[in-house]
Write a structure and sequence with these properties.
The chain is mainly α. The chain folds into three domains: about 5-90, no CATH class; about 95-230, Ferritin, core subunit, four-helix bundle (Ferritin); about 240-460, no CATH class. About 75% of the residues lie in helices and about 0% in strands. The protein contains 17 helices and two strands. It has helices at about 5-15, 20-35, 75-80, 85-90, 95-125, 130-155, 170-180, 180-205, 210-230, 240-285, 290-335, 335-350, 355-365, 370-380, 390-410, 420-445, 450-460, and strands at about 40-45, 60-65.
């Protein structure tokens, strides 16, 4: 057995009383992997706040492989434990409760530090000076909250987390801010602030001392204000025309983005699934080699061109149908104006307007024939020009996404052959499906792992 494996097992046994079962399992699995692969490595467990009886939600245990020596870094409170008194700490008593309380407070310190870092990241991207100042003030408030928890941890004899590495902000919020704008990122921040309020409400039962309850009360009050502040960052423009243009622009962005995202997901899924079937079938028959690669590349090119052509023709046909309906409705409005006016009045009455109000609105709309035409088309046929996809754009997105998806299952066959290549191709294809689903959450704002699992399950 390699030296690393022996040392690692001694560390696990020596700290069995101090480490939770989840951590022991992780270390043991890493030990077996390194032994099987003949890797001389070290396992460093880094995190001073979660090694206790309770697994803190939303926290991550970081496991780092390094060389040449093995270390298991425990929190100071756990390092002071010995094997003989480890079991006593787990028993109900003041020592065990204090250790668990310190871990809860360290987790809360991370929550506040991550919130402050997120606000600073958004402030560095924000171009409006007023909103930038508000974001920086919110970051300072989060830092003050973190200091409250850090001071409380030190008062209880725990390690001062301010002397260690500082947590980073939400990478997802920063990515959304850079790709879709700070406004959309603020929606994520608002959700995080709401989650933090629920987190602190649940933490009341875990921290029963008066000082901690006072901190939680203040954080809950400040958290409510933070939510309101984030909501008020995007203020409506005073000019009605500017406000309307802003809303229409936002709705148009949603529509167009939904179109290309649908084309992209359809293309990636088609490329991954179809070409994986081709390469796995050819590999099973021919055993691998250049034949599989050629078949995969040929399938990739054919699928990409077919998808692009299909997307172009489908969207062009949809636009032609829309234009034909517009021409038909324009002719009816010209030949039977009174009938169309009555039709418009009835639509408004169905929306809750009185007969007089509907007539007044229709009269005003009739003074602008093109506006009335588009309104009739939308109300009568449910069609809107803004919602129609661009055929050329759909074709480009469909072609590129299909080619990209189709390339993934082919890559292993450049380096491997036989059953091993098929297995690797299947694994990376599944991971690619998950990655595409997770990336979709940047626009849909759904949970990234739920979105990824959904697409993976459908693909499998």
């Amino acid at each position: 057995m390699p030296l690393m494996d022996q040392t690692l097992r001694r560390a696990v046994v020596a700290n069995q009383a101090a480490l939770p079962d989840q951590v022991c399992t992780i270390v043991d699995v890493l030990s077996r992997i390194c032994h099987a692969c003949a890797v001389s490595a070290a396992v460093t467990i880094v995190d001073a706040g979660i090694l206790n009886d309770a697994w803190v939600p939303h926290r991550t245990l970081v496991v780092v492989l390094s060389t040449p020596a093995m270390r298991v870094l425990l929190p100071q409170s756990l390092e002071r434990r010995s094997v003989s008194d480890g079991a006593n700490d787990r028993a109900p008593g003041s020592g065990g409760r204090t250790s668990a309380a310190i871990s809860e407070m360290l987790a809360s310190w991370r929550v506040e530090m991550e919130g402050g870092a997120t606000f600073r990241d958004l402030a560095s991207i924000e171009t409006d000076p007023r909103r930038r100042d508000v974001l920086l003030r919110l970051a300072e408030a989060e830092d003050r909250h973190a200091d409250m928890w850090a001071d409380r941890v030190v008062a209880l004899g725990g390690p001062d987390p301010r002397h260690g590495p500082k947590p980073h902000g939400s990478r997802r919020a920063a990515l959304v801010a850079r790709t879709s704008g700070v406004d959309r990122a603020l929606k994520l921040v608002e959700e995080d602030e709401q989650s933090d309020l629920e987190y602190y409400q649940a933490q009341r039962s875990k921290l029963g001392d008066a000082q901690s309850q006072t901190i939680i009360d203040q954080l809950l009050a400040d958290g409510d204000e933070h939510v309101k502040t984030v909501q008020s960052l995007i203020r409506p423009l005073p000019d009605p025309r500017s406000r309307l243009n802003t809303i229409l622009h936002r709705e148009k962005w949603h529509s167009s983005s939904g179109s290309w995202i649908g084309d992209a997901i359809y293309g990636v899924n088609d490329g991954l699934t179809a070409v994986f079937g081709i390469v796995s079938g050819v590999a099973g028959f021919a055993g691998g080699g250049e034949v599989v690669v050629v078949a995969g590349i040929s399938g990739m090119v054919a699928s990409a061109l077919s998808m692009g052509a299909s997307a172009y023709l489908a969207n062009k046909s949809e636009r032609e149908v829309f234009e034909a309906e517009i021409a038909r409705e324009r002719r009816e409005l010209h030949e039977h104006p009174e009938e169309e006016r009555e039709e418009m009045e009835l639509f408004y009455q169905l929306k809750g307007f009185s007969e007089d109000e509907a007539r007044t609105m229709t009269d005003r709309l009739a003074d602008r024939p093109e506006e009335m035409l588009h309104t009739l088309v939308q109300e009568e046929l449910g069609l809107s020009e803004d919602r129609l996809p661009n055929p050329a754009k759909s074709a480009l997105v469909g072609t590129l996404s299909t080619a990209l998806g189709a390339l993934v299952p082919v890559l292993p066959f450049f380096f491997l052959a036989g059953t091993g290549a098929i297995i690797v191709s299947a694994v990376i294809s599944i991971l690619a499906h998950f990655g595409v689903g997770a990336a979709k959450s940047l626009v849909t704002l759904r949970s990234w792992w739920m979105s990824g699992l959904e697409m993976t399950a459908v693909a499998i």
